[in-house]
């Protein structure tokens, strides 16, 4: 590096600098690849990364998007912004026992901004931001790879030189088009990984700027070192992996800035050599910078720990079965097998799945399992790379391999189960950052092959073919992420043993009204995982609706036996028992559900229905009132209160409740209809008519609305209008109870009037 000199000497100094930079081996020298100016390289990378995922822009909210976005109250304007800093990614309080402790307030803030600008839950805006973020990250990768592959060199004017323009472009393209990134880009929840990666890279580039006016490493900018710590903290507030950039900055500093020989340093450390300064530990301010990075990282982790609370996240065995194994051997073997699967997804991203849990990957329980070969292959490759990274005489090779392994392994550590249990087996989203290391190693391997190959163009064509295949795979996988049906069905061939895949296919079919097909998939989910209580609950619900009450009760009873605090299953069991006219058991089930979920408006609603069937009117009204207190927009509870009060002759109270309900839910036509009936009986015909007409405007095909309006006109004496609405009602529903009789009475009355008039 060259310090600032007099301007007149600048051209000579830059020439000298270029000569010095060429002293190191140039990776670009031996590869047959296109050489583009830096700005054109970035444009190409941006366009290709956009091309890969553009078809996901109009996709739906799928899979985890429902919980993280649609059902997340933190996105709504009425939730104070301050709550984001005390809630997890899913909108639950961090202090709650059910919280996953995923603390990502900045990601949730971007979702909230999306929601506010779109004026609601419209997925296009969310998807577009994800695609743009991936394009920006891919463009930044050009600069990052130019440093990691070519080294960090500046001119005397502080301009960073790209000493590996060809290889950095290739590596950035490999990153931009990697199919394993589809989950992060096409799945809106992947925003966390994208934002984390963005600030992760900005932290790294900021750290590199600390040495812009550096002379032989003795001078550096403390400001940029601290800025990189702050950017690392921002990355962590987007997703937990972000904190690992501080460790990678330290590794980069030691290897690139201080040119530390790791093996030599370890040997001197073992010999307790007093001349550790010669190994590069103390010179050039390395120790001071690492102290800043470590202090910053420790402070960030402490603050996060204080906010998050001391309790670990609560996961179940189905989320990560290996972590619940009693044997240390079984845990270790399976963790390593999971690592090999992640490595395979980077090497051959063909079999991709939205979820790898619940039996998708059966546990390895003995060394006779053939899958042990995958572990052996992984460690054979890793040990080989580590040996080369430590022992090679080529310092350039040592540096690139160590950086490649560092970027591959260090960002993956939070997902490795080594420090704490994670809530998944394999997750494609967590290898978004580690893929940087893969791209470094792949590109370096390509340069080594090119150096040996006689026909370099054939090798270049092969790499181009890999890029094209990956582009097509990204486009195909993006289209599968556009809807839940396509996404869930795509997983059936990849993970046929995954109970959650069958459950989600069944749920999607049930939501579309195809109950017969849904039953088949729910049964398969329960067969694959006999303790899958959510599949039992949903299957029990469908059987209940089909009046197959005996089997529904058996399934729901088994679900609450397996998971005694499963409130939804207790409520559904109560509904089935109510249908079987076992009222005492039903009441007990409802109260058990409420005990496990205190704020459960739907359960209070169903409890009110039970009390109404038993003519316990006061209890029914109290239950429905509780439902509306917990959920003011609970239309069914409001309606039942109005109808019960109406039927028992409490018209004044029914009217008051109806008006209260319409103030809270002004556009609910069923409430308009119920209140109109009450007003009609109270002889407030004009107001009743207005509400009936408003309800009919909102729902013109409801036969009962026309029929009851006809009754109102009949009472009021507007016989022609009564006749008109009786006829509309009978046209919509010829079997409407009472309407035909009322219509015949009206016709006879009209005939009598005509005779009198005649």
From TrEMBL:
<feature type="domain" description="DUF1736">
    <location>
        <begin position="311"/>
        <end position="383"/>
    </location>
</feature>
<dbReference type="InterPro" id="IPR011990">
    <property type="entry name" value="TPR-like_helical_dom_sf"/>
</dbReference>
<feature type="transmembrane region" description="Helical">
    <location>
        <begin position="286"/>
        <end position="305"/>
    </location>
</feature>
<keyword id="KW-0472">Membrane</keyword>
<feature type="transmembrane region" description="Helical">
    <location>
        <begin position="430"/>
        <end position="449"/>
    </location>
</feature>
<dbReference type="InterPro" id="IPR019734">
    <property type="entry name" value="TPR_rpt"/>
</dbReference>
<keyword id="KW-0812">Transmembrane</keyword>
<feature type="transmembrane region" description="Helical">
    <location>
        <begin position="188"/>
        <end position="208"/>
    </location>
</feature>
<feature type="transmembrane region" description="Helical">
    <location>
        <begin position="243"/>
        <end position="266"/>
    </location>
</feature>
<feature type="transmembrane region" description="Helical">
    <location>
        <begin position="372"/>
        <end position="391"/>
    </location>
</feature>
<dbReference type="GO" id="GO:0016020">
    <property type="term" value="C:membrane"/>
</dbReference>
<protein>
    <recommendedName>
        <fullName>dolichyl-phosphate-mannose--protein mannosyltransferase</fullName>
        <ecNumber>2.4.1.109</ecNumber>
    </recommendedName>
</protein>
<feature type="repeat" description="TPR">
    <location>
        <begin position="499"/>
        <end position="532"/>
    </location>
</feature>
<keyword id="KW-1133">Transmembrane helix</keyword>
<feature type="repeat" description="TPR">
    <location>
        <begin position="601"/>
        <end position="634"/>
    </location>
</feature>
<dbReference type="InterPro" id="IPR013618">
    <property type="entry name" value="TMTC_DUF1736"/>
</dbReference>
<feature type="transmembrane region" description="Helical">
    <location>
        <begin position="403"/>
        <end position="424"/>
    </location>
</feature>
<comment type="similarity">
    <text>Belongs to the TMTC family.</text>
</comment>
<feature type="transmembrane region" description="Helical">
    <location>
        <begin position="131"/>
        <end position="151"/>
    </location>
</feature>
<keyword id="KW-0256">Endoplasmic reticulum</keyword>
<dbReference type="Pfam" id="PF08409">
    <property type="entry name" value="TMTC_DUF1736"/>
</dbReference>
<dbReference type="InterPro" id="IPR052346">
    <property type="entry name" value="O-mannosyl-transferase_TMTC"/>
</dbReference>
<comment type="pathway">
    <text>Protein modification; protein glycosylation.</text>
</comment>
<keyword id="KW-0677">Repeat</keyword>
<keyword id="KW-0808">Transferase</keyword>
<feature type="repeat" description="TPR">
    <location>
        <begin position="703"/>
        <end position="736"/>
    </location>
</feature>
<dbReference type="GO" id="GO:0030968">
    <property type="term" value="P:endoplasmic reticulum unfolded protein response"/>
</dbReference>
<feature type="transmembrane region" description="Helical">
    <location>
        <begin position="458"/>
        <end position="476"/>
    </location>
</feature>
<dbReference type="GO" id="GO:0005783">
    <property type="term" value="C:endoplasmic reticulum"/>
</dbReference>
<feature type="transmembrane region" description="Helical">
    <location>
        <begin position="220"/>
        <end position="237"/>
    </location>
</feature>
<dbReference type="GO" id="GO:0004169">
    <property type="term" value="F:dolichyl-phosphate-mannose-protein mannosyltransferase activity"/>
</dbReference>
<dbReference type="Pfam" id="PF14559">
    <property type="entry name" value="TPR_19"/>
</dbReference>
<feature type="repeat" description="TPR">
    <location>
        <begin position="533"/>
        <end position="566"/>
    </location>
</feature>
<dbReference type="Pfam" id="PF13432">
    <property type="entry name" value="TPR_16"/>
</dbReference>
<keyword id="KW-0802">TPR repeat</keyword>
